[in-house]
Design a protein that fits this description.
Structural class: mainly alpha
Strand content: under 5%
Helix content: 55-70%
Radius of gyration: 21 Å
Mean pLDDT: 87
Distance between the termini: 53 Å
Low-confidence stretches: 37-41, 311-319
Number of strands: 0
Length: 319
């Protein structure tokens, strides 16, 4: 392919990526608006319902960590406070989207949300490390599916950066009074939450460790039908250095340019990418000559995209 044709393909994908980034940039404010009452294109009522449940569950867990004596009104006020933070909202949105997409894939294509062919292979691995990680990841994924059905969001399943943000919000929450007993209870609550937290034991932590243990075989997880969405998103995150939240959101129909570029950056050829699109967005097609776009150029285009920081907050360690 000559340079002008290559530039034309890049221009098409770059424009689509910009449109996708603009859509993502509006997610947090649209979600906040919808949780208070109306709609948006990247957000469905089903996703909003999940979000309400997940944020409410976070509030109940925080309040219960301090005292058994709290009201539903206390939980509602704290939930409203959590909604004001873009990082918390965007992470929960990505998790809700993962649950929604996983269910849709299982319903339409028969891809199991928990025990996929790749997960079975990893459990049967001759490497005891891989087999053990796969068993733990399987159990964590099973809990995730059940949590999504209940619209729950266990605090212990948050990634470390989001967990740290949640603790800061909890400490600053207007629901915490300033008297000495309340301060003591809050201090004990924070200490217990930190002591109980282990990022490596979270579902996303276990999946990341499992993909890392697969080494060069991680590319096998880029087959949705073989790996399922959880491993697929984790491998895409690892191979393209994008936040896992963005890997999940790239599976939305309005983010097809990001998905195509991500899969190409991970080394997949056009026919392999088309197989993934056939499962997620069968009505969409790649631009002609897509295979001539080099993986490193696809990675550059992704790296240059402009997404809001709320969609991938920078890691911060829990002290």
């Amino acid at each position: 392919m000559d340079r002008s044709a290559q530039s034309a393909i890049e221009a098409i994908l770059r424009d689509e990526l910009v449109r996708g980034d603009l859509a993502l940039s509006g997610v947090a404010p649209v979600l906040a608006h919808m949780l208070a009452g109306s709609g948006g294109s990247l957000v469905s009522e089903a996703i909003v319902a999940r979000l309400r449940g997940m944020l409410g569950h976070l509030s109940h867990q925080l309040l219960a960590s301090k005292s058994d004596n709290y009201s539903s009104r206390d939980a509602d006020r704290l939930t409203d406070f959590l909604v004001s933070d873009g990082a918390i909202l965007s992470h929960c949105y990505a998790i809700a989207m993962e649950g929604h997409l996983s269910e849709r894939l299982e319903r339409k294509t028969g891809i199991d949300q928990v025990l996929t062919p790749l997960m079975q292979e990893l459990i049967a691995s001759t490497s005891s490390e891989v087999a053990e990680l796969a068993m733990k990841a399987l159990a964590a994924q099973s809990r995730f599916v059940q949590s999504q059905k209940r619209m729950d969001m266990p605090i212990g399943e948050l990634p470390a950066d989001v967990f740290q943000i949640l603790l800061r919000l909890w400490e600053q929450s207007p629901s915490n009074s300033a008297d000495d007993d309340a301060k003591t209870a809050l201090k004990a609550s924070l200490a217990k939450l930190k002591a109980d937290y282990d990022e490596g034991a979270t579902r996303t932590g276990l999946l990341a460790r499992l993909v890392s243990a697969m080494r060069g075989g991680a590319r096998a997880a880029l087959s949705l039908e073989h790996a399922g969405l959880a491993l697929f998103a984790t491998a895409l995150n690892a191979l393209t250095k994008q936040p896992r939240e963005l890997a999940i959101l790239s599976c939305h129909e309005r983010q097809s340019a990001r998905l195509a570029l991500s899969l190409r950056a991970a080394g997949m050829i056009e026919s392999e990418i088309e197989q993934q699109f056939a499962l997620l967005h069968p009505e969409q097609q790649l631009p002609g000559g897509f295979d001539d776009l080099l993986p490193d150029r696809a990675q550059t285009l992704i790296s240059q995209s402009d997404t809001r920081p709320e969609l991938h907050p920078r890691p911060r360690r829990v002290q």
